[in-house]
Write a structure and sequence with these properties.
- By secondary structure, the chain is an alpha/beta fold.
- The protein is built from twelve helices and 17 strands.
- The longest helix has 14 residues.
Length: about 350
Amino acid sequence: MGKKFIEWEEAERDGCFGGDVTIIFMMGNDLMNAVVITKPGGPEVLQVQKRSVPKPKENEVLIKIFAAGINRPDVFQRKGSYPPPANAPQDIPGLEVAGIIEQCGAGVINWEKGDAVCALLSGGGYAEYAVVHAGSCLPIPAGFDFVQAASLPETVFTVWHNVFQRGNLKENEHFLVHGGSSGIGITAIQLAKAFGAKVFATAGTDEKCASCISLGADKCINYKNADFEEELKNDGIDVILDMVGGDYIPKNMRLLREDGRLIFINTVKGSTQKQSDLDFSLIMRKRLTISGSMLRSRDVNFKQALTEDIRKNVWPVLESGKFKPVIFAQFPLAQANKAHEIMESSLHIGKIILTN
């Protein structure tokens, strides 16, 4: 199963002091630290509180968290505009973690206590422990540490499902991602490039554009200095991953080639647009496909199937060295508010991580 971690008492009992085994010390109580959204508001509403360590139900595992990724949906949840699913912690954000399995619930057959994993959660990642369905766990990729592994699940799951499954991006096609320096962006650029696409991106500064180029983008447009539609009108795009919406929508539709695919994962500039600005005949003339998705609320069967597809197709790319995790900053759990301040500033390039 890959890396194995065991407790000191087990090591002493079993004589496990050599080989590929790491000894760790575990807390022996039923309480943990967790970052709680005390009320909707700014970063200051995030506070560390004591909570009971969750217990895994059937087909779930309990993970001792070493690192957790910060994502834009966490900010929306903190502000009160993105409520978690009913089966997720309601006031503890966090959609991706990396750590070791501390306990397996009934029915778990593919994981054992001590396995090193990263996992996609519906919430609860800003804590020392979290439970998740076993089918949403993946092994830590070879060569990755916990911080790097924690940067993967939310972005890799989102990109693989939307760009490659829904968008059906193929080798030699042209791909455009907006927000190229975001966690989603850096993942989309690298995976699209690894699978043979020509990659275009937009970002808000020359520094961010340079980072996109260094990760594999063939061209990146600073949208604050130039009109991306004008800059890309002669390139022709087959698949667009859009998290912006608003006035980007008609531009995206005009940029797409015949049989192009426009995929939405967010609409930060608005989910509506004046009908006069949209030429719906383009959909018919170009045979365009417009789609999108939200992963957080999907059921465990869907997520398990997606996890298996990612392990088969994406994990070999990660372990081959063709993918570089980009970590902008790390903060201890108690400084989650500072991590959110950076996320909202949009000054970062890559991922922001909380550590335990």
